[in-house]
Amino acid sequence: MRRLTWGNAYLLVVFSILYTPIIYLLVYSFNSGGTMHHFEGFTLEWYQEVFHDTRLLMIVLNTLIVALFSSLLSTVFGVIGALAIYYVKNWRVKQALLTFNNVLIVSPDVIIGASFLILFTLAGIQLGFVSVLLSHIAFSVPIVVLMVLPKLQEMSPTWVDAARDLGANEWHILTRIVLPFITPGIFAGFFMALTYSLDDFAVTFFVTGNGFSTLSVEIYSRARQGISLSINALSTLLFLLTIVLVAGYYWISRKGSRLYGMWKK
Amino acid sequence: MRKLVQSFIAVLLIALLLLYVSNRLNEAEGYAGDNTLIVYNWGDYIDPELITMFEKQTGLKVIYQTFDSNEAMMAKIAQGGTTFDVAVPSEYAISKMKEEGLLLPLDHRKLPNLKYIDPRFLNLSFDPNNRYSVPYFWGTVGIVYNREMLGGKKITSWNDLWDKNLRNQILLVDGAREVMGMALNSLHYSLNDTNKAHLEEAKRKLDALTPNVKAIVGDEIKMLIANEEAAIGVVWSGDAAEMIAENDKLDYVVPKEGSNLWFDNMVIPKTAKNIEGAHQFINFMLDPKHAAQNAEYVGYATPNKQALQYLPKEITEDKRFYPDFDKIGHLEVYENLGKRMLAYYNELFLEFKMHRK
């Protein structure tokens, strides 16, 4: 058995603080008492309520569709963007592009959401599926760029030179050398974009409308009315889904690095 | 590269499959096409069974969206990105929306059930001749308190809240008009007072209340009071009715100094696409039986005179929620005070919120 060092104890404390609220919520989703302050008995009633609610299931589907499409498209745009930034020769321009990219990541969601609302209003785009999809793509692209770029920088330029020496054209270099090398980064970017899109609230809150809603916005509007434990059940399901996605991400990235190891030999 | 392309196609296929499923579900539920009606209402402010009934009766599909403040609702309607067909603003919001041209006039020929509404609730100052609006619910602002937590002490007036023994016991609803109105009433001023000296005085009085105030919250006040997180809440009557249903140690009182009388009303915003359906919906909700069912679910008082006979006596005779009109002469309706005065109210309220204990 490993000894319990101060470092481990610290980690334990921090993680328990971080996870206690989630576990609290998770436990009460099985409460037959109907409130959050007294646990009466075990029930799956709230989960049944969630699965009988067609509107809610529609919203779950909407959320998944938006997440998949937006992360797919933003991965495509993000990879192209990362390649463009990588190939910029001028150091200043490169830094400027990177900074513009990072500003989008650190700027508050509320501001991004509000500016999208104004933009869509000006452009006459109806709020709904399209507006949510567009804004999700927009806030995911910088994340993908950030995940892919380090992989590109890791790549040794001599390989590209060697490929050219052996007569490869630009297309071959891209598809046989560059893309295979940065594949783990692309997957990482895709999964990051997916989780960002799934749990985004602030931006989505501004641009939903016409009956189209995503899970986090719906949970918010239901939670404001308080008490029903079906919200707990729903949050629990969402939490489990996120865990599965994170596990998937690690599994793929581990597999990716193993493949990369084989490829290097 | 092949792996990338394969994964890309796999994800794309999954997404398309989900899209197909959701479209099929949409069709099965009838949400596709033009036969939809978007209703924009406060959260949990209608009996969902009535929506199902309306859908069966008319073949229309109702999309129910919710807001949590008049201001948020007005912003979304003014923004114009969504085609809301029916909305339910409070009376002061209606005067404002009228001024900004956000409402369509109602066609009274299509609303025969309007005759069931108690005439006392028609033709009010905020909408002469009910050109734009039809009353939906009405109620008061008052104090809900936990008899047990207060040890049997009775609360009858606003000034009772300033009691030194109530330290950290009061939750206030987060509304500038409600909280400022409470302070003005406690000083025996009108809650539409525009005299700056009176308003300053009210603000100073509020500052003296801060040691007793535990928090200023939104809709979650219902949950907090029902869960006994605090003994006293300043709330709307319908919220109080819900809390009392949840926790029978609670009681509600309209303070004797006077308080606010408010109306929520159905209107058709200018964004409406299905104007015919909107009239049908409003008329449906005005039907006495439907109004009674709704009132029983929501807990607010219905302005529908004919509906009262369908409601249980213990509801309609509960003077806390259906006060006699001759006895409630001291209740006032919020008037539209104009942008500048309203901004001043908001500013004072904000200062109170930031006041250190």
CATH class of the largest domain in chain B: Alpha Beta
**Biggest pleated-sheet summary of chain B:** 8 strands, mixed
CATH topology of the largest domain in chain A: MetI-like fold
Order of helices and strands of chain B: HEHEHEHEEEHHEHEHEEHHHEH
CATH H level, superfamily name of the largest domain in chain A: MetI-like
Percent in helix of chain B: 25-40%
Q: Please name the CATH architecture of the largest domain in chain B.
A: 3-Layer(aba) Sandwich
Notes on the protein architecture:
The complex is a heterodimer of chains A (265) and B (357). Chain A folds into two domains: 43 residues, no CATH class; 211 residues, MetI-like (MetI-like fold). Chain A is 80% helix and 0% strand. The mean pLDDT of chain A is 84. In chain A, α1 crosses α11, α2 packs across α11 and α3 runs parallel beside α6. With 265 residues, chain A is mainly α. Chain B has 357 residues and is of the alpha/beta class. Chain B folds into two domains: 181 residues, Periplasmic binding protein-like II (D-Maltodextrin-Binding Protein, domain 2); 154 residues, Periplasmic binding protein-like II (D-Maltodextrin-Binding Protein, domain 2). In chain B, 40% of the residues lie in helices and 18% in strands. Chain B contains twelve helices and eleven strands. In chain B, the strands form two sheets. In chain B, strands 4, 5, 6, 7, 8, 9, 10 and 11 form an eight-stranded mixed β-sheet that branches. A three-stranded parallel β-sheet of chain B has the order 2-1-3. In chain B, α5 crosses α12. Chains A and B meet through α3, α5 and α8 of A and α1, β2 and α7 of B.
